[in-house]
Amino acid sequence: SGVSSVFPSTLVPESSQLRSAQNCSLRFAFVESQVRWLNPLFKIGDEQKLKQDDMYSVLPDDRSQHLGEELQGYWDQEVLRAKTYKQEPSLMKAIVKCYWKCCLVLGIFTFLEEGTRVVQPIFLGKMVSYIENYDPANSAALQEAYGYAAGLSACVLVWAILHHLYFYHMQRVGMKLRVAVCHMIYCKSLRLSSSAMGKTTTGQIVNLLSNDVNRFDQVAMFLHYLWMGPLQVVAVTALLWKEIGMSCLAGMAVLIILLLLQSCFGMLFSSLRSKTAALTDDRIRTMSEVITGIRTVKMNAWEKSFIDLITRLRRKEISRILKSSYLRGMNLASFFTISKIMIFVTFITNELLDNRITASQVFVVVMLIEALRFSSTLYFPMAVEKVSEAVVSIRRIKNFLLLDEIPQVNTQLPSEGEVMVDMQDFTAFWDEVTDLPFQDHDC
């Protein structure tokens, strides 16, 4: 099931034209990477305005009932395990058990993708070195240069394919998790007991379904860069040491300081997300109560008082969101500046140490540091931010799923031939035009 979720079955179109074009049940990875299954839809859209019947139906594996019941099964197992060992159940463990297989496969894609980015500077350095030491009589060196050029081209091609393939399928994983959790929240809301209803509000449930679950779409895309970013830093540091020696440590020290700072930002994101979610719950609950009792508000002319109340709540919520935006802006600013600072510090240190450097080494050093630009200064901070927010959302959803439910009454039906209802001195009446209610029963 893990591999099938990475390479899903073909979407089934609603219209007859698309059904004939999409009649196979499984799709190969090469076709998926080209997104060729959209071509019939583009063709119809070019000929006429798209209608609802032209849209693809939802894949069976993507339906909310299937996804929700699958995750619910792992959650029920986790709750049972926690009761056995007298521990608190963990929704995180249930999610990991449900989706670890497909995430593992996509993690391999991430490793290969970022590996090609690290190898590219090596091929480029070899090509520049060949030009530096050009010898027309050395045919062996020319053949090696052709090999390096082919290797560089292959790395670029592999990266282009794996990069988009990874993000596409990780977005599908995030979508599946969001749909599954929405299904669980909805089913849970229908089973809440009277005492549990007093511990939650409609506003909180709406906030869980509209806000908290959206974190899963975002965290899925950058999840693997939590480990890929530091691993790539180690690999690049080793290659830089081989090229220019200890001068590289000055530039890498700048990056390590940034990574530590971004880890601190992650804790701040988690704290701000908790406070923002609580304020959002309060605001939505207040708005729901105002809308429910709008007649009373109008009759007593309380509009101004409630406007002031809701405005204060919204301002508190916006203040937390602004703080998160400031931190997010600082993370994004590092993406545009850190690689230039690292290159500057590295070459200044190399010059102060009186080390000789060649053109090929300059190209290799610059490209290796630029290879870290996306994974370590953009995707890693985004991963820290989104994981911190997702942890808060998972904790809020878990607390909701642990609320008391209405006791399930198992009605034991009598076996065939046994009496279900025994009535004595019973009188009944009904309308003449209706069927007799007991015409098929013995009384």
TrEMBL record:
One of its GO terms (molecular function) is chloride channel activity. The chain crosses the membrane at residues 145-168, 222-241, 247-269, 325-348, 360-380. It comes from the Eukaryota. InterPro entries: ABC1_TM_dom (IPR011527), ABC1_TM_sf (IPR036640), ABC_transporter_C-like (IPR050173), ABCC4_TMD1 (IPR030240), CFTR/ABCC7 (IPR009147). Keywords: ATP-binding, Membrane, Nucleotide-binding, Transmembrane, Transmembrane helix, Transport. It holds the Pfam family ABC_membrane. Residues 104-369 form the ABC transmembrane type-1 domain. GO terms for cellular component: plasma membrane. PANTHER family: ATP-BINDING CASSETTE SUB-FAMILY C (PTHR24223), ATP-BINDING CASSETTE SUB-FAMILY C MEMBER 4 (PTHR24223:SF357). This is Multidrug resistance-associated protein 4-like. The lineage of its organism: Eukaryota, Metazoa, Chordata, Craniata, Vertebrata.
